[in-house]
Structures are given as structure tokens and as C-alpha cells.
Design brief:
Layout: E1 2-3, E2 10-11, E3 27-29, E4 36-38, E5 53-61, H1 84-87, H2 90-99, H3 109-113, E6 120-121, E7 129-134, E8 137-142, H4 157-162, E9 204-206, E10 218-225, H5 233-239, H6 244-250, H7 253-264, E11 274-278, E12 281-287, H8 295-300, H9 306-323, E13 338-340, E14 348-350, H10 364-378, H11 384-394, H12 401-415, E15 457-468, E16 478-491, E17 494-507, H13 515-533, H14 543-563, E18 576-582, E19 585-591, E20 595-600, E21 604-607, H15 614-620, H16 625-628, E22 652-657, E23 662-667, H17 669-672, H18 676-679, H19 681-685, H20 695-709, E24 715-725
Antiparallel strand pairs: 1-2, 3-4, 5-10, 5-12, 6-7, 7-8, 9-10, 11-12, 13-14, 15-24, 16-17, 17-18, 18-19, 19-22, 20-21, 20-23, 23-24
Helix pairs in contact: 2-7, 9-12, 10-11, 11-12, 13-14
């Protein structure tokens, strides 16, 4: 499929223009001169500006995969029931990293101090071989000619993967060596005239010669994505993880550690775009970070306040702790490997993983030596506490990274004005490493006025809803409504997004006459009420306004019940779950057993509502849950819209602020019964927090899942994805 760069609509591979917005899928406009440029070109033909999509390919030479019979995926990597190997939580990261620590090669001590390897390429070579020299060794470099033709036909996902060697689960990987081969990036290096591709499908064109590697060596080479709008083969595999062949292809140890780190710490680590194995090499495609702000330059910038410097030290100490179990601390000791995150300003970003030399593991003293050199080169005046900390690191007086973090907390507290301090030093959770520092003016001085805690900035708000009759019902008594309003304001160097959203699910009471009518009336009444009373506000409605809206919806249904002389179980009614979003603030309300779930990377899945049913009522009264749910009426609703007057109605209303990327899921009991959401969170909920994953497809998958495992009731779901980060 081709993903439109303008509206993200998914188009068939053969389409030339987006079916949704009409944007071209075969060319783009140069940002400098506005000329049409083919998507498979690196530079504009008219002005030379860079237009192509470039990835950095990390190539590891490893022992060839052994032929072996298919095996079951280990429980911690199972793709049928969860995606832990792709979307691993915090608890699983360190174990997974430990088991794969030898996948990424190590560097010698001499290489640690250099920003680029001393690889030299011979000037005279043809397209069949290149002679390179690393130290005193010579190696022949083969440049494949098998992709002489660029006009390859687009293939299906299965065909794209078919040529790749799939890794069996018992692949034996040799220990890493202490050398690394990198390609000469100087302008004097000869350019290959004939297009040479990294992959067998002719998608990723090499921008520099591909060198030959010895066992355990690693190289990095830039490639041009000739089909940048097409979903990568790896992403295509993730859409169908149940396929046995796909499950094997997803088990690529060289990529697994990147997945685990990215999905736990997205502001600090790159996301894998594609990965595969061929013969004796593992290839992982990572984002090109050349446009990210350079960490060393930011450190030396006199406009960077000392508070930000200390915040970076705190992040490095925390990342050291994260990378230690998997033996990737070397990644923090290469200054050319560090940048400032483009999505979370102020956060340190690691471009690539480098494994530790098993014969000389990095120590906190090495980290302190790096910090010492940074302070020395920048010419900054050191506080006494920082000088003492560096001395303690050099003399190995700090017992572990925890003691170092405590020292840094004390230093940061000393830099914070008294009116901004809390009673205790604020320690960032290991799952949320970003540290906010006070914003300074042009003079670099911190303002005298106390700062108010800042809400994060909204980056995007998306929502998608679906309803299905299910397998056993003849009519659909569920109803939903959603409305999202976005306003984007831009000035040079700044962009602000304002958003409001109203999201409703009503489940007509099964077995009650007119359940379908009741659910539709509730949705219609609430939409009309908020359109009238919450039309021009940028903030959330008050609790009383929300209660009034629900009461009015209840009265509308109740009046119909009374006019029809319905009584008892003959009265129509409906449940309700309601979500209102105003930028990064959320209000929720519910009546009955329709639920709201929240998923974040730091806290995982949480149920935000408590069902209004007899069993939960008894638990609230102190009854043991097992006893409460032995009652025959345990699942009978204690509240619903419509059957009774509003004076008997007690909706639950809550407010909270969104502080990180969040997925909200509204669902009727056709989806939530039998703990379906909790059971399949890793495979069907967690992936949806990623901005690159289609919400439409994700909600369709939830409906299909419910039909497969429940199906006895109507099924309705609304997924809301809120992307946010703190302002720098």
C-alpha cells in the first residue's frame, strides 16, 4: 500500500494519486524551487536541494543462520497473542537486551575516542569490487549487479518478503569482535555510476559503496528509499503476525533490542524502519539523524543554560542504567552518536546502538571522563558540586549509578530557585526520562516569578469509531458519535495545534424494548446539548454542565417511556460512556457498563471507569469480589439512561491532564466481555499508540477480535490517539 504523505490515507500500490485528497503518489514538489521531483531521486534536478528519503543501514556480519525445523516463538516474543518483542514494556526490555547483547558489534578503545573510523577506500575500482584498508588488513568489496534494472514491478507484501532469508529461532550468533568498518564519507570517494541496491527488491539504493565485513564487524551506510510512500516489508509483516512465516521473519535479534528500547523510550532511541537477514548479514534500517541538533554543539552553545546541561547529565545517567544490562553503554560514550531529539526537545537522542567490548567494559569513570572533556572544551565555569562529582567519578568513589543520580539530583536542586523547589528532589521515573528545565530569557537568567507547571503541547489528535451487530443479534442496539475539531496556527519557527473532541458510545439495554431507539436518542441529545452549550470554548466544560447534558438525555428517553406507558423491564434504556477532549485535558463520564480504557507507554493499560452493576456495588460495600460475583444478578446494571427519573441518576465524572502520548478506548460490553481488552492489549491496543499505525485498521481489528472471541452481543469501539510532548 502507498501511504499519502498529506492525509495518511492508504492507497493501492498502483495508484498515482491519493484517493482521499488527490496528492501525487509518484512525485513531490521541491521545498526550495517547487519543481516536480520523482520520489526515487535524492536531489532536485533543478536546484540540487535534498528531496529524497534517506535511511541509515546498520549492517552486521554474523554467523549464517543454521537450517532448523520451525519452532514456537518464546513466550516473551510470542506474536500470536502479543507483540512483546516489538512493543515490549519496561519490565521486558532489560531481559530481552541481556539475551541479545552480543548482536551489535563492539568498538576498540581507540575507536571510542574518534568520531569516524579510519577506513580508506582505494580510488581505482570498478563496479565489481572495491579495495578497502582497515589498519593493515585488505578486504575485497563486492558490489552486486543483480539490480541493474530499476523498473522493478511492485510486489505484494508476501512477495517482498519471500526473497529474504528468514531467521529461525535457534540462529547462533558469534560473539562480537572489537572492530568496526565504516564507509568513507569524504568527497574524494569514488561514486558508483550504476545503481546498486541494498536489498533484493531494488528499493533501498546505496548512496555509498557497501564494504565487505569480517565476522563480528559492523558497517553503517546511507541508502535512498526509492519507494518512500510504500509500507516497508517489516511493517507489512507486523500487520499479519499470525502467519508462521511472518513470525519467523520478525525474530531478528539485531532489530529486537531497538524495538524494545524505542517502544519504552521513544524520545531517546530510533525506531526501526525495516530489518532483514541475508546470508551472513543482519541489516537494520534506522532514521537518518543528520538533521537533528548536534548534542556537542548544543553543549558548547553559550545560550544553553547550566540547568539544561545538568538535565542532560541526569538523562545520561538514567540511560546508562537502562543500557547496562544489555551491554550497550558504549552508545553513550561516542559524541558523534548523540543528538537532541526532534520530537521531545531537551531530550538526549541516541542515533545507534554500539555494544560494549566484553574484554573492557565501560565504567562510570569513562562516563565521567567524557563529561570532564565536554566541560573543559566548552570553557564553562564549574560549580563546586559539579567539580566534586567529576572527581568522585574519576576516583571511583561513587558506588554505582544510583549514587550518581542522587548527586545529580542534589546539583539540580541547587540550581533551582527556592520558590520553584518542591520538598524533595524530583526524580524522573526510569520510564520517563525527559527532564524539564526552566526556560530562560535572552540574558540566560531565570525569571523571578514562580513558574506554573506547564501542560504539554498537543501535537495531534485523531479518532476512529466502528460498530458491528455481532454474530448472534439481529439488530444493532449500539450507537456512537464522534466529533473532532482541529485548528492549526503557524508562524515562522512555531506551530500550535488547538483541538476539541466529543466522543460518545451508548449501548441500548439488551432485552429491553426500544434499546436501539434509546441509544440513538442519547447520542443525538448529547451532541445537540454540547453543540449549544460548548461551542466556542477552548477549555473543558464544567462538571455541572456535563451532568446537565446527561440529565437532559435521560429525561428525553424517560419521557418517551412514560408516554408509552412502559414499566419495569419493558422500559427502554441505554448505557453511556462519554469523553471530551480540549487540547491535552480530558473529561470523562459514564453510566452503566460501557467502559473507557487508557493506554500510555509509562503506565500501560488502565480501566478508567467502574461498571455500574450489582457486583461492583457489593465490592464497594466491602464484599469479597469472588463472593460478590457469585450472585445471580451480579452483572445486572444499577444505573442506565432512560428507565428512571434523573433524580435517581448518579453519573461518574472525572477530569485529568494528558502528559504523554495516550490512546483512549471507548467500548461497549460486546468488546470488553471476558477480559478481551486486557488479554489482547499487547497485540491490539499497544501498537495503536504509534503515530505510524492506522487507527482505522486498528479499530477494525478490535471488532474482528470481538466477533471471534465474543460475538454474542453488538460491538462498538472508538479509539482516540492524543500525541503530546512538553515544550522546551
Amino acid at each position: 500500500m502507498l501511504v499519502c504523505p498529506q492525509c495518511q490515507f492508504e492507497n493501492p500500490d498502483h495508484h498515482k494519486f491519493c484517493q482521499s485528497c488527490g496528492t501525487s503518489l509518484s512525485f513531490l514538489f521541491c521545498p526550495q524551487c517547487s519543481c516536480e521531483v520523482s520520489l526515487d531521486q535524492l536531489n532536485c534536478w533543478n536546484c540540487g536541494a535534498k528531496t529524497g528519503k534517506v535511511w541509515q543501514a546498520v549492517i552486521l556480519c554474523q554467523k549464517p543462520a543454521q537450517e532448523s525445523p520451525p519452532q514456537e516463538i518464546p513466550p516473551n516474543l510470542a506474536a500470536t497473542d502479543n507483540f512483546d518483542h516489538l512493543m515490549g514494556g519496561v519490565d521486558g526490555v532489560q531481559d530481552q537486551m541481556s539475551s541479545n547483547w552480543d548482536v551489535i558489534t563492539t568498538l576498540s578503545a581507540a575507536e571510542v575516542t574518534s568520531t569516524e573510523s579510519s577506513l580508506m577506500l582505494a580510488q581505482d575500482y570498478d563496479t565489481d569490487s572495491v579495495l578497502e584498508t582497515v589498519g593493515d588488513d585488505s578486504m575485497a568489496v563486492s558490489l552486486s549487479d543483480e539490480h541493474e534494472e530499476e523498473g522493478l514491478l511492485q510486489m505484494s507484501n508476501a512477495e517482498q518478503i519471500g526473497d529474504r532469508d528468514l531467521l529461525s529461532t535457534d540462529t547462533e550468533l558469534s560473539p562480537p569482535s572489537t572492530s568496526m568498518a565504516e564507509v568513507d564519507t569524504s568527497e574524494e570517494a569514488t561514486v558508483v555510476d550504476k545503481p546498486v541496491y541494498l536489498d533484493s527488491q531494488g528499493r533501498y539504493k546505496l548512496l555509498e559503496p557497501r564494504v565487505s565485513l569480517q565476522l563480528g564487524e559492523m558497517a553503517r551506510v546511507p541508502v535512498l528509499d526509492c519507494k518512500p510512500l510504500q509500507v516497508s516489508p517489516l511493517e507489512a509483516l507486523q500487520l499479519t503476525p499470525d502467519d508462521p512465516q511472518n513470525r519467523s521473519a520478525l525474530l531478528i535479534p539485531a532489530a529486537q533490542v531497538y524495538w524494545d528500547l524505542y517502544y519504552s523510550y521513544p524520545q531517546h532511541f530510533p525506531k526501526v524502519h525495516d530489518a532483514w537477514e541475508e546470508a551472513d548479514q543482519a541489516i537494520v534500517l534506522l532514521p537518518d539523524c543528520s538533521d537533528l541538533p548536534d548534542f556537542e554543539q548544543k553543549w558548547h552553545d553559550i545560550q544553553t543554560p547550566l540547568q539544561q546541561i545538568v538535565a542532560w547529565l541526569q538523562q545520561m545517567a538514567q540511560l546508562w542504567e537502562v543500557l547496562e544490562p544489555g551491554h550497550y553503554r558504549q552508545s553513550l560514550l561516542r559524541l558523534d552518536n548523540l543528538a537532541i531529539s526532534g520530537t521531545a526537545p531537551g531530550s538526549l537522542f541516541i542515533k545507534q546502538l554500539y555494544a560494549d567490548d566484553p574484554e573492557k567494559l565501560p565504567t562510570l569513570g569513562d562516563l565521567g571522563q567524557l563529561w570532564q572533556s565536554l566541560f573543559k572544551l566548552s570553557g564553562r565555569t564549574l560549580m563546586g558540586s559539579i567539580t566534586q562529582m567529576l572527581r568522585d567519578l574519576r576516583e571511583s568513589k561513587l558506588e554505582g549509578v544510583e549514587q550518581l543520580r542522587l548527586k545529580l539530583d542534589e546539583i539540580m536542586a541547587g540550581l533551582t530557585p527556592p520558590e520553584q523547589r518542591t520538598t524533595e528532589p524530583q526524580r524522573s521515573s526510569v520510564t520517563r526520562l525527559q527532564t524539564d528545565v526552566p526556560i530562560t530569557g535572552s540574558s540566560g537568567q531565570i525569571g523571578d516569578a514562580p513558574t506554573v507547571p506547564r501542560l504539554p503541547q498537543l501535537l495531534d489528535l485523531q479518532a476512529c469509531g466502528r460498530t458491528d451487530v455481532g454474530k448472534e443479534r439481529s439488530q444493532n442496539e449500539d450507537c456512537f458519535g464522534l466529533q473532532t475539531l482541529l485548528e492549526r496556527q503557524e508562524i515562522p519557527g512555531s506551530q500550535t495545534l488547538y483541538a476539541r473532541g466529543l466522543y460518545i458510545i451508548s449501548d441500548g439495554m439488551g432485552g429491553h424494548a426500544g434499546g436501539e431507539v434509546a441509544s440513538r436518542m442519547a447520542v443525538h441529545s448529547l451532541k445537540e446539548y454540547f453543540q449549544t452549550h460548548w461551542a466556542d470554548s477552548d477549555s473543558l466544560p464544567s462538571e455541572q454542565l456535563i451532568l446537565n447534558a446527561i440529565a437532559e438525555a435521560n429525561e428525553a428517553i424517560y419521557r418517551v417511556n412514560m408516554q408509552g406507558t412502559r414499566s419495569g423491564s419493558g422500559r427502554m434504556g441505554t448505557t453511556l460512556v462519554l469523553v471530551i477532549v480540549a487540547n491535552t485535558q480530558v473529561a470523562i463520564a459514564h453510566v452503566g457498563d460501557s467502559r473507557l480504557y487508557s493506554f500510555t507507554r509509562s503506565q500501560g493499560l488502565r480501566q478508567m471507569t467502574v461498571d455500574h452493576e450489582v457486583g461492583q456495588r457489593e465490592i464497594a460495600r466491602g464484599v469479597d469480589p469472588e463472593i460478590a460475583y457469585t450472585r445471580p444478578d451480579a452483572y445486572q446494571l444499577t444505573q442506565a439512561l432512560g428507565p428512571r427519573d434523573s433524580k435517581y441518576l448518579k453519573p461518574d465524572v472525572r477530569f485529568w491532564d494528558i502528559t504523554e502520548d495516550t490512546l483512549l478506548l471507548l467500548a461497549s460490553d460486546g468488546l470488553t466481555d471476558n477480559d478481551l481488552v486486557e488479554t489482547y492489549c499487547h497485540t491490539h491496543i499497544q501498537p495503536l499508540i504509534d503515530s505510524q499505525v492506522s487507527l482505522d485498521r486498528g479499530v477494525d481489528g478490535l471488532i474482528d477480535l470481538a466477533n471471534e472471541h465474543n460475538g454474542h452481543d453488538n460491538i462498538t469501539a472508538i479509539a482516540i490517539r492524543v500525541l503530546a510532548h512538553h515544550r522546551d
